[in-house]
Specification:
This protein is an alpha+beta fold and 201 residues long. It has five helices and eight strands, in the order ββααβββαβαββα.
Length: 201
């Protein structure tokens, strides 16, 4: 599907660009903004592992199961600025079609600035209005209450909990909570996201 090829998505606060190896230094700087790899509820690579993570995501893109992006700020003139994190379409099912929005992290200084809200809006809009997904999935650690609250504020509904679903970096089994937005829910979710984004104007 051409709609699932690498594409740049433009917003007023953030621009999502297809991931490339040349983004390495900017991603390392973003991860160091808050030492994000030390947070138990995220999977942010340490600086020395960033190149490997970029390669992993690009390999998944080549296999057709992921479409990875980097996030940049947008200045008052509409120009793309510094890199503030990563996000993806993942677990891509091209036949349905269906995607999961995940593997997302944001530099600490970019949190609560509206960039994450807008990046979710851009990804959801493209998934529903261009790709034609009947549903978009979002997952998180069952104990990551901050992330769960943010997902619920988007308007996503909880589908269920995958118990002992995967292992965290420390080897412990984690439960994963699964949310989704359905196509008929998108208009209301879209209006909510636009309303929330306007508060950062």
């Amino acid at each position: 599907m051409t709609a699932l090829l690498p594409i740049t998505l433009h917003g007023t606060r953030v621009v999502l660009e297809p991931l490339a190896h040349e983004h390495h230094d900017g991603l390392v700087a973003a991860a160091r903004d808050g030492d994000l790899w030390n947070l138990w509820y995220t999977s942010v690579p340490e600086p020395d592992a960033m190149e490997r993570e970029i390669g992993r995501r690009l390999d998944l893109q080549a296999a057709g199961s992921m479409l990875p992006f980097i996030m940049r700020t947008v200045d008052d003139e509409g120009n793309a600025g510094r890199i503030i994190g990563m996000t993806t379409y993942m677990n891509i099912d091209r036949d349905t079609p269906r995607v999961e929005i995940g593997s997302t992290w944001n530099a600490r200084s970019a949190q609560r600035t509206g960039t994450n809200t807008e990046s979710k809006y851009l990804l959801l809009r493209h998934a529903f209005e261009v790709i034609g997904c009947p549903a978009v999935e979002i997952r998180t650690h069952v104990l990551n209450h901050q992330s769960r609250a943010a997902i619920e504020r988007l308007g996503a509904k909880q589908d269920g909990i995958l118990r002992s679903h995967t292992r965290s970096r420390d080897g412990a089994l984690r439960d994963t909570v699964v949310y989704s937005v359905l196509a008929h829910e998108w208009p209301m979710v879209r209006e909510g996201l636009l309303h929330r984004s306007a508060r950062y104007a």
